[in-house]
Amino acid sequence: MLFKLIIWTSFLVIWQQSQVVVAKQRKNVVCYHGTWSTYRQGAGKFDIESIDPFLCTHLMYAFFGIEESGDLRIIDPYLDLEDNYGRGNIRKFNALKLKNPTLKTLAAVGGWNEGSKKFSIVAADPAKREKFVSSVVQFLQKYGFDGIDLDWEYPGQRHKLQNNDRANFLLLLRELKEGLEPFGYMLTAAVGSIKHSADISYDIPEMMKYLDFVNVMAYDLHGPWAPVVGINAPLYAGPQDTTEIAKQMNVDAIVKYWLSKGAVREKFILGVPFYGRSFTLENSNNHNVGAPHIGRGIAGQYSLEPGVIGYNEFCEKLQTEKSIWNLEWEADQKVPYAYSDRNWLGYENEKSLALKAYYVVKEELGGVMVWSLESDDFRGVCGKKPYPLLNVINDVLNGGVYRPTKSPNETPKKPELSKKPETPKQPEANNNVTGGNGQSNMNSVANSGGVAQCQGKSGYIRDAVDCGKFYYCDNGIAHSFQCPPTLYFDLNNLNCNYSAMVEC
To answer: Is 244 labeled as catalytic in the residue annotation?
Structure first.
């Protein structure tokens, strides 16, 4: 353990000195985008343009649906597609990879509102499973996602049919893996977290065989369904947690349970919430964790759902109402809560999320998943910069966010011009990992051909011959990338751009 600690500390020091992070050494930061947030009003409106593509390693487009026939379903065609004057959000979402070529985008299928019944019907039928796999592959090829995130909430628990959901879920995962693997597509899943739920739904060691990583939703651990107030995602148990099931309702217990059941540490992504759960207290004088309540509390001014309030909504509320709110810290559970008269809120802030990220580092887990982007202070209304929660997670996990931009005092050098060959040079097969649609998924690959060009350099450079190819140079190691067809690597903006806009 001491040796690992030394290595980890050395890595942080090196990163801070050089501000260079090698992709394979980074912890995952998996970010869900609830696409309906584009319909919110005022400062709560969140569009694809609101996303900072450097703050996440993986972006999840939530959600798509599933039909009982096995077909994948687009839920909001006007928002997602460009047909019939649609807004084309899928294209905009995947175009974020032109700004950050190391970013991965996944299509999230399911979610709470999609329910469990259709998943159960499809997973129980071999022909429908086959159709679903084919539908998913065609969808990923058509729209340019890097994989699928399966969000079945939850096998064997809701809309219960006479199906063996637990076993059928594994069949669905195995067949999806077999169908996606030839194209290099990813397969992940969002899963229920606590022992009581996971025992019903999952064969943990078996599902780990088929998934690239698992997003464990370690939140919604307390809510209005319980008779007393509690915090959405406490890190540890509190003194009021005396029953066996109450002791399961915290991040530490969830992680220990999953690891004891055979979860792979580097595939375990800890899900954290960017929203809180609100309650209406039974008695305004009894406002500690565990106090009785009479139901859901205030709604967020943008999300408009009673009992739920995003971090951005609460921090904006404090700008005008700070004098009437009491802000407290629950020392045992390592989370904040607040109350005002009979209003009570258990939520997350920068301190509590930093502690959860430190926990991920200590336990050598694969990273952090956030639900969801639009609940962070993405405009920077409340603080010094946008996305304070996502930034603190990146700071703890990876020492910060690497942005391939030039120093403000640096005079840009005019790139050397190279004559474009009459016949376009085909990229080497081992450096251009393609899916079925022929588009590069831009995986980072250690590349011997770029080593000579990387000597004495760091950061991004373009290939001397092929303007669509570029390298990330790190101490003489060249990580090779290939822009999608017809795009060149723009040395001025350090991203893939239309060829007509690039001096090559």
So the answer is: no
